[in-house]
Structures are given as structure tokens and as C-alpha cells.
TrEMBL record:
Belongs to the group II decarboxylase family. GO terms for molecular function: carboxy-lyase activity; pyridoxal phosphate binding. Pfam families: Pyridoxal_deC. NCBIfam families: PRK02769.1 (NF002748). The modification N6-(pyridoxal phosphate)lysine is found at K275. This is Serine decarboxylase-like. Keywords: Decarboxylase, Lyase, Pyridoxal phosphate. InterPro entries: Group_II_Decarboxylase, PyrdxlP-dep_de-COase, PyrdxlP-dep_Trfase, PyrdxlP-dep_Trfase_major, PyrdxlP-dep_Trfase_small. One of its GO terms (biological process) is carboxylic acid metabolic process.
Length: 446
């Protein structure tokens, strides 16, 4: 691409970004500048407050019709639990010990934890866990347990890992080795082996991605375990944390997929409850081996419990939301939803490829990766997540085939405008997804 053409494309992208921000500002200016400012000395009237919320609900309803790029399942209904929001529920402390604060939901929490313990094949007497605020807190706890086991351990994680992993390494002041990834997004075990051999003198704390954020790449747990053994790391010199934010609850329902099991030498697993299951607020679960927790916990007299969690006060409503979703769907319902999401993801992949749009879908994944739209306004309209030259859609239960048809149709229309006179060409995404999945001017010919 010539410098002039490149400058034109850059100008177009910047211009579209500014336009999108301005349109968003204009849409929200009345409610933002007039209604949301907290300046009433005597308090706002109920009628005005209701009007504000009603307007906001309308905007949310509109946005949810095009919520494609982020893993937040909108297909849920918790109306039956509305009466619980008349109570402050707080699960401070260890859910297995309880606390002196009686307005808690720890019985529901333990029920949820037992369910996940069975899913990931660890005996009730051997595990410990709690309901978190989401995947990042689960990562915070899992990696903290690993660091407590190996204070001088080195954290290994792939370059495609969630940004929270690198933030955690900084927070805990841990040495972190960023390992390369394959085109699928999964960790490159050849490079991991070289890194492990270069630091054989220190224990290994491994973060594995059970579905990477952008591509849905699944690190091969069995090969990683074999690599550790090959490099001379005995079981008492490594700790494996599995970040299964989205796929940690999906893979067990796919017969051909690898098993995430504590029968293997893993040490902690975390998932996000709001991603696949669908919850109105962020939440998650972390499970680890009970034998690690005593070193991490302290008795706290004021709450008559044990402090072993990252946060002190913990939302008591989240465990009930998770319990309700799991109880209502059942194993068969969850399995059906997993398969429906994957089928619809394959449908989207076929639609994009039939339209001549470069795209990729990993096996056992519901994340479809494709060329980044040139129009930032279009990207915002469909709530797409982007990185470099690629974007993705996460197909969850609220994403219907009709929604996908509309998205693809609009995408095709936009591309016909962007590339109309040949001044711009589809972005090259070969470095992200491989040349066979790229339709740029170079790779389309090959």
C-alpha cells in the first residue's frame, strides 16, 4: 500500500472514530448533562427518577439487539428472584465456615461450588472455592495460591492471555514469561519448553487459557503437562491455573473436547458466571485444592469466619443467581445451549466466507474472528471487540441467526462502500488467522 493510500485510510478511520463519539455524545447529551447530575438538595421526585430509568432501559434494549462482540449472555430472566433485592446479602468470609452476619447466602454458594467441583472432577473433601466478582478475581486468587506455594516461582502465560494475567504479575511483583502463541491463539508448547529449560532452577506457575479472549484458542493441558515432565519439573515444582472464563463451563459438555479435570495435575480453575450462563452483574467461581488454603487464610474474629478470599464483603445475590441458572437449566439444558452456540457460530463463519470475508473459527469455539471493519461507527453499532486488524463475534444464547443475518448483510453493504473505488482493500489478517483465512489482495490470489 502506498503512503498516500495508507494516509487516506488512516484519515478515514480517525474520522469515523470521531463521528461515532460525536453521535454517541449527542444521543446521551440530554440525559447525561440534564438528568444524571446529582445536585438536588431536596432529592429528586419519584416520577423524574422513573423517567430517567425508563429512558435508560430503552437505550439498553436498543443496544442489546446488536450485542455481538463481548461474552455477556443477555438471554436470562431472574424475575422470580426480584423479592431478594429487598435485602442486603453479604457473604463475607469463608463460605464453608459461615459468619456472624446472618443475612448471607452461603448455603446457595456451597451448592454452586459443589456443582462445579463435580463438573471438574474433584471430591468435595478435597476442594475449596468461592463465588467471585468475575474471571479477573478468580485469576487473582488462583495465581496468588500458586505464588504462595512457590514464592520464587516464575509465571508462564501465552501472549494471547487475558490482560488481567499481566496485571496480576505486576501486582504480585512476579517474574512473568510471555510465551508465544500459535495462530489458533493457543500457547506454543515448543516455545514454552524452551522457556522452561531456560529457567529450570525455579518452580513454574503456569496460567493456561481455556479459551483465549480474542480467538477462543484452547491451551492443550495434556501437552503442557507432558512438556513440564519433559523439562524435569516434578509435581512438587509446578502449579497450573486454568483461566476458563468462558469455555470452562462449555468444554465439559462437548464430548470430543479435552477434559478440564482435577484428576490431572492442575491446581485451580476459574470461570465467569455472566459470560455463558448469563447474569445481570459480573460474577464467577474459583475452585482450588483445599490443602493450599490453610497457608493463605487467617481467622477474623469480628466476622467469626476465616479470611481466605480476595475481597472482604462479597455479594450474596450472585451465588443465588448462579444457583438459579444452573438449577433451572439442568445438565441437559446446558449441553443443548453449548451445542446451539457452536452451531450458530459455524453458521456465521459460513455466512462470512460465502460473502468473501476473511474469517476463522477454532474447533469447540463459539468465537468467530474476521477482518476488522474500517468504519468505527459500524463497530460500535454492533458492539464488536477489535484488536489489530481483526474483530470477533461471540455467539451466545441471545445471538440469533436473524441477528447474525442482519449483521452480515450490513457488513456486506458497508464493505461495498469502503472498497467501491478500489482505493481501499480488505485488511490483511494472515498474521492473526493464517493466510487460508485471509482475503486481502495478496492472499486471496494464493
Amino acid at each position: 500500500m502506498g503512503s498516500l493510500e495508507g494516509n487516506n485510510m488512516l484519515s478515514m478511520v480517525v474520522s469515523n472514530a470521531k463521528l461515532a463519539r460525536e453521535e454517541e455524545r449527542q444521543e446521551n447529551i440530554n440525559i447525561t448533562n440534564t438528568n444524571l447530575t446529582i445536585n438536588q438538595c431536596i432529592g429528586e421526585t419519584d416520577a423524574n427518577l422513573k423517567a430517567i430509568i425508563t429512558h435508560y432501559v430503552d437505550t439498553l434494549t436498543y443496544s442489546s439487539l446488536r450485542n455481538l462482540g463481548y461474552p455477556t449472555n443477555q438471554d436470562f430472566n431472574y424475575d422470580a428472584l426480584a423479592s431478594l433485592f429487598h435485602f442486603h446479602l453479604n457473604n463475607a468470609g469463608d463460605p464453608f465456615v459461615g459468619s456472624s452476619f446472618s443475612l448471607n447466602s452461603t448455603k446457595f454458594e456451597v451448592g454452586v461450588l459443589d456443582w462445579f467441583a463435580e463438573l471438574w472432577e474433584i471430591e468435595k473433601s478435597d476442594y475449596w472455592g468461592y463465588v467471585t466478582t468475575g474471571g479477573t478475581e478468580g485469576n487473582l486468587h488462583g495465581i496468588l495460591v500458586g505464588r504462595e506455594q512457590f514464592p520464587d516461582g516464575i509465571l508462564y502465560t501465552s501472549q494471547d492471555s487475558h490482560y488481567s494475567i499481566f496485571k496480576i504479575a505486576r501486582m504480585y511483583r512476579m517474574e512473568c514469561v510471555k510465551v508465544g502463541s500459535l495462530l489458533s491463539g493457543e500457547i506454543d508448547c515448543v516455545e514454552l519448553e524452551a522457556s522452561l529449560l531456560a529457567h529450570k532452577d525455579k518452580p513454574a506457575i503456569i496460567n493456561l487459557n481455556i479459551g483465549t479472549t480474542m480467538k477462543g484458542g484452547i491451551d492443550d493441558l495434556d501437552i503442557v503437562i507432558q512438556t513440564l515432565k519433559k523439562c524435569g519439573f516434578t509435581r512438587d515444582r509446578f502449579y497450573i491455573h486454568c483461566d476458563g472464563a468462558l469455555f470452562g463451563i462449555m468444554l465439559p459438555f462437548i464430548k470430543q473436547a479435552q477434559r478440564i479435570s482435577f484428576k490431572k495435575p492442575i491446581d485451580s480453575v476459574t470461570i465467569s458466571g455472566h459470560k455463558f450462563l448469563g447474569c445481570p452483574s459480573p460474577c464467577g467461581v474459583v475452585i482450588t485444592r483445599l490443602k493450599y488454603i490453610n497457608e493463605l487464610s487467617r481467622d477474623v474474629e469480628i466476622i467469626a469466619s476465616r479470611d481466605a478470599t480476595i475481597t472482604g464483603s462479597r455479594c450474596g445475590h450472585a451465588p443465588i443467581l448462579l444457583w438459579y441458572a444452573l438449577k433451572k437449566k439442568g445438565l441437559i439444558g446446558l449441553k443443548n445451549e453449548v451445542h446451539e452456540c457452536i452451531i450458530n457460530a459455524r453458521y456465521l463463519l459460513d455466512q462470512l466466507r460465502d460473502a468473501g470475508i476473511g474469517a476463522m473459527l477454532n474447533e469447540f469455539s463459539n468465537i468467530v474472528v474476521f477482518e476488522k471493519p474500517l468504519d468505527d461507527n459500524f463497530t460500535r453499532r454492533w458492539n464488536l471487540a477489535t484488536k489489530g486488524n481483526i474483530a470477533h463475534v461471540v455467539v451466545l444464547m441471545h445471538v440469533t441467526k436473524e441477528m447474525l443475518d442482519t449483521f452480515v448483510r450490513e457488513f456486506i453493504q458497508k464493505r461495498s462502500i469502503w472498497y467501491k473505488h478500489g482505493h481501499f482493500q480488505p485488511l490483511c489478517i494472515a498474521n492473526h488467522v493464517g493466510s487460508t483465512n485471509c482475503v486481502c489482495s495478496i492472499h486471496k490470489l494464493s
